[in-house]
Amino acid sequence: MSYVMQFKTMVLTLAVVVVIILLCVMPVELFAQHSHDYPRLMMFNWGGATPEWYAKFDVVVTANNGTGFAQGIKNINPNTWVMPTRDINAGQCASPYYDQWTTLKSDGSEIRIYGGARPLADMSDFCPVIGGKRYSDAVIDYMSTFCDLSVFDGAATDGLWEFPDTWVSTDIDLDRNGVNDWNEHGRDWIRGYWLNGVNKVLQGWRDRNPNKLFFINSGGFHSFGWNTTNGMFLEFCWALTNWTHFNTLYQDWMKRALEPHVMFVDGTAKYRWDNKPTITKNDYQAMRFLLTTTLLGDGYFTFEDVHSEFHEYVKYYDEFDVKLGYPTHDAQRLQAEGPDWNIQAVWVRFFDNGASIVNAKGKTVTVTDAELRTLNGYAGPYYRFKGGQDPTHNNGEPFDQITLWGVYENPSLYKIMGDGIVLVKKPETIIADVIIDNVDAGTSAGSETVEYVGNWAIGNYGTAGSAWAMTNSTKDGFGAGYHYASSGNGNNYAVFRPTFGVAGSYKVYEWHAFHGAAGDDEAADVPYEIHHSNGTSTVTVNQRANYGKWNYLGTFSFSAGSNNYIKVSNTLNGIVIADAIRFEFPKEAIPPLPPTNLGSSDQTESSVTLAWTAPGPASDGDLASYYEIHRNGTFVRTTVNPTYIDTGLEEDTDYSYSVFSVDDAGNRSTTSADGGPYHTLADNTPPKALFASNTSSNVVEITFSEPMDESSAENVGNYSINSGISIYSANLVEPTKVNLGTSAHTAGVTYEVTISNLIDRAKARNVISPNPTILKYIGIPPEFTITISSDNEYHLFVNGDSIGRGDGWNDAETYVVPSVSGTNVIAVRAIDYDIQGGLVVEIDYMNNHFVSDRTWKVATSEPLNWKSVEYNDSGWSYATEIGRHGATQPWSDYGNVSGISQDRGVQWIWSADNENDNVVYFRFVYPRGDTPPSPPVGLQVRRP
């Protein structure tokens, strides 16, 4: 599977600049699931870790589809969602896979992917039928049966593209007639048939498995399958190209995607990949930046050492054990600056039990508690927790202020990196387990692997299935499951030397595998010398028994730093195994007392108000830190207050509740306060249309007071608009919002929309009041829709305002920008990095279509105010047409520009000197009065 990840890295970054096709998704009721608190953790791993390691995470996606594997995880943590994965692209989702199902080139040869290691399976309906099935049919069957879905929570694919541009950029023959489809049909045709097959698979799987999770790794944000799948994988994330763009995509996805969401943010110190340093697991700044970025939404996070390469193992950090509870507010920004298309800011989000701060300004900033107090939802004062991995950052002090690093790693590409911090509401010590393993893959952040002295041999995973492991990979020496030494007199010894950021008492556990047959030749009296801050203690371990698990050695005091250690020596009566040692900072075991007197003072159509009496201190003096609320036996959320309003309920329905206490060590009360059933009121209130707005010249958005019935809301006959405006469509884009597709409006004119006969979703349907309802709104000017790409970089302006930037010519970006009355100017600064520059643009405006061609003006120096409407460009030259997009080298040799038409006359344009002018300035004015000269004859463009 490493070939899969190897080639995906060419196109992956967290800030994938894509145009999302926003799918209107109606809610789908999935089976009742545990709602994971924050931070939410995930593991994407090919297999090899122990069940207790997987069980630390909220979601696990792995190649292992064994029922016993999943059950072993759930026996430890029943709230971990486990999904096995297969690569749909590579033909792994059919048994058997037939060679005839492989996508072909026009010469009849197979298209191979991942360096030629795998076939590209044909997702289209042109795929041959074998045994009554196409590949897409086989995928639905296979993905529904290759694992036991009564145990697994769903299924996943680690390879599924809406269109495999990288692998078919020059030649593909879907219809198998011996003609290159790029020449015969064009990109839109190819992509359409391919995506139809993809959507067929996703819909077919969802129809077969309506109550299970399905997750896609397409490499980044994608625009397909939002109504049939639960999540996507943002792979190898290390920086953000455009924070505003990323955050917009993130928020849109959460609003529209199928619940429950399982977006994964796969963090890594990728910017260090090229140098491949010895250790990147200690890059706490990169981890915090991406974790706190993920906390802006409801995604799940993981962090990989770059040596993990392709999801062989992940690391665990102190921040992962913070119990933030649930968000109390959406993310808010501080210190915002920059244009709307790329706002740099510090982002803050408040939770039940703390707060999260991330610096996304691209420069170092200082954030103060006084600034946090200006935001909605502040419930401080807050504290830094005391952590063991980065004790300077997480020092346990009251939060007053913090300086967070930030930088544009590459200013021309706007790669933002920064830092973040997770705060808590009261002083806490949160220290993740420290594990010392014989390889770095299994060793915790902040510590080094075992030190071996003398003659030690390697026992690999194949002969030691009971070894402590976080990977089964053999890359970079990770195949060493354990080390062992022959019997002797102690000359061979191993030193396990942890690094502690916080001094204190730690529980110590050892893990040993077996050598050869279990209980055969291992030593029965292996001495473990624990060198702690109070001296040395020796514990003898019988390695012929209790293998493959953590064995408790005792609790000892250790000083901060790496002065203390554990030494294991070979003995006289058998093989000695040195595998792994775990140090656990003890958590209190006494549960808090339960709350009492649960009751409800108020019920509405959609909510129940709860209140209870907080318990007194337990025998250890601890009070409840927060409360778990369960509705009808299903966990809902936590709250720090002894009150809660449960919202989003069904009308005219009974609900019963249980509330548990939880202390700061995570111990839950053994009993609960119970109450109910409480009955929500029936909905007898007619809905109302609150307001209408002209969101674009051809769209009117109407907002209602409550969720509306789809059939009545999407009946065009229930609406009318005066002044000759025609209504072509009505779409319920959100439960309380309808978008009307209309004829063009006139800017500044006041219109009236009449709404009749709409009903709500109440059990006894209520008709809109008053019926009819008349709302007024003001027409806005029509928009320019601009699709643009440049080899290699552009900065787009409309009427003097900065609209957006892009780099990398292969994919175009689309912008929708309001026009102004009279003259409008589209201006572009374009930059070429290498031999030949080129700009391609398409503009749609009021049923007119304009393209980049010789009507554009061009200059090679930057005059003052050149972007404005008032600037006189009569002295500028007309652009030079290099050639038609889709047929002009060198771009046509590399698949042309995704998103730009090949059949509508779009020209690659530049200055007259296409090779030496590296920065050029373009202007397109509408309307334009003069006529450009005829193009030169016989222009040739040399290939690089």
Short description:
The chain has 10 helices and 58 strands. Strands 1-2-3-6-7-8-9-10 form an 8-stranded parallel sheet. Strands 49-48-51-58-54-55 form a 6-stranded antiparallel sheet, with no helix packed on it.
Describe the fold and architecture:
With 944 residues, this protein is mostly beta strands. The chain is built from ten helices and 58 strands. A hairpin with a 2-residue loop joins β35 (626-631) and β36. α4 (135-145) packs parallel to α6 (187-208). The model is unreliable at 1-34 and 937-944 (pLDDT under 50).
Structural class: mainly beta
Low-confidence stretches: 1-34, 937-944
Number of helices: 10
Q: What overall form do the CA principal axes indicate?
A: globular
Q: How many strands appear in the DSSP assignment?
A: 58
Using only CA atoms, what is the Rg? 31 Å
C-alpha end-to-end distance: 35 Å
Topology:
Elements: H1 2-8, E1 42-45, H2 51-54, E2 59-62, H3 67-76, E3 81-87, E4 112-113, E5 118-119, H4 135-145, E6 154-159, H5 181-184, H6 187-208, E7 213-216, E8 231-237, H7 243-256, E9 264-268, H8 284-294, E10 300-304, E11 332-337, E12 344-351, E13 354-360, E14 363-368, H9 369-372, E15 383-384, E16 386-387, E17 401-408, E18 416-418, E19 420-424, E20 429-430, E21 434-437, E22 451-453, E23 457-460, E24 480-485, E25 493-496, E26 504-511, E27 526-532, E28 535-541, E29 551-558, E30 565-569, E31 576-578, E32 580-584, E33 596-603, E34 608-613, E35 626-631, E36 634-639, E37 643-646, E38 654-662, E39 673-679, E40 689-696, E41 699-704, H10 710-713, E42 719-721, E43 727-734, E44 737-742, E45 750-755, E46 773-778, E47 783-791, E48 793-798, E49 801-807, E50 813-818, E51 824-831, E52 838-845, E53 848-851, E54 857-859, E55 877-878, E56 880-884, E57 907-910, E58 919-926
Parallel strand pairs: 1-2, 2-3, 3-6, 6-7, 7-8, 8-9, 9-10, 16-20
Antiparallel strand pairs: 4-5, 11-12, 12-13, 13-19, 14-17, 15-19, 17-18, 21-32, 22-25, 23-24, 24-31, 25-30, 26-29, 26-32, 27-28, 27-30, 33-34, 34-37, 35-36, 35-38, 38-39, 40-41, 41-44, 42-45, 43-44, 45-46, 47-50, 47-52, 48-49, 48-51, 51-58, 52-53, 54-55, 54-58, 56-57
Helix pairs in contact: 4-6
